[in-house]
Amino acid sequence: MDFPEELKYSKEHMWVRLEGDRAVIGITDYAQAELGNVSSVELPEPGDELEQDDSFGSIEARKTVAELYAPLSGTVLEVNSELGNAPEFINDDPYDAGWLVVLEVPDPEEMNLLMAADVYEDYVTNGE
12-125 — its CATH code? Predict the structure, then answer.
């Protein structure tokens, strides 16, 4: 299981990489492993406004359909359109090719509500 230290994590198993006022968001290695083989993804449209902790899409896998919850508030700038043809990127490379959305983040202080890598690793290892 991979827990990159430069990322922050939500209890809903989302990761965030802050790049200035932009946040790249995806699901964690733990989450993709729990889901199994991802078969499709439903994502918001560029320009959509997201509120922290609100549902913004879903991931369908062999085992289940899982809701995606925004780890931060912001405006969707980009969605990973590659996932439409290659949802397996989420399983193969959740922290790079498998990213989901990029948000413009008006309040980077929300990052303080997310977990550091070691805290998230403990969260998933020792039970939620």
Answer: 2.40.50.100
